[in-house]
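To assess whether ligand presence alters the predicted conformation, the chain was also submitted together with magnesium ion. Input:
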Amino acid sequence: MEGEDRVLEAVGLVKRYGTREALSGVSLAASRGELVAVIGPNGAGKTTLLSILAGVQRPDAGSLSRPAGEVGWVPQQAALYGKLTVAENLRLFARLEKVADVEGAVERMLEQTGLADRRDDQVATLSGGNRQRVNIAVGLLAEPEVLLLDEPSAALDPRQRERLWRFILDRARAGTAVIYSTHDVAEAERYAHRLLVLADGELLFSGSPAELEAACGAGGLDFEGAFVEFLRRRGH
Ligand SMILES: Nc1ncnc2c1ncn2[C@@H]1O[C@H](COP(=O)(O)OP(=O)(O)O)[C@@H](O)[C@H]1O
Ligand SMILES: [Mg+2]
């Protein structure tokens, strides 16, 4: 997918924290409806990369072209207000983001995320899965062309994960470009069109799950084992 379908492109992103280089020249692009997984171990630079794409942090070098409209950002730590209800949180964030039709956006997100029957529940009383749904609903309030999610499934049990992915796949089918990070190789293999492997701030691989499997040379190992071997052979 290329050309007019491309909604986000980053070239040569570099980010330093003091003398430590968290990103060393990372390039990537995403198109309408594409699901891109950024896989890598802890400390690889996933959060740094996504927060730069989200516009929350600035790179020290490199260029970024983002869509004219909003980019949806779902951080790993939800910035929700526990004492407010689900609907109140959505309303608050819709106002902060200057969404044109606040009530319309709130109703649409309650509907889409299946949270309508929880609208008057205090966020603090929700299960982890439902809280994550509110977190994602906040990221989608402005109907962004690009949705960025940082380890969206990390705190969820298998059933909640399943529901989360069904919802995210639906968004992608509706045309949203989705870029998410995970350290779960199997999950990335199952729920992405394209995988980016990041280790120590370096992009080691970009391609389809089948191409990564081939590059890993999965001789006898399961995919996860082959992936660890892939990182080891490249000195990580
Ligand atoms: N605000 C910060 N200040 C200093 N170092 C940081 C900061 N944020 C991240 N780092 C360092 O940058 C590297 C990449 O971190 P991060 O992007 O959080 O990786 P990941 O999300 O893949 O676990 C790590 O070595 C981390 O310690
Ligand atoms: Mg992280």
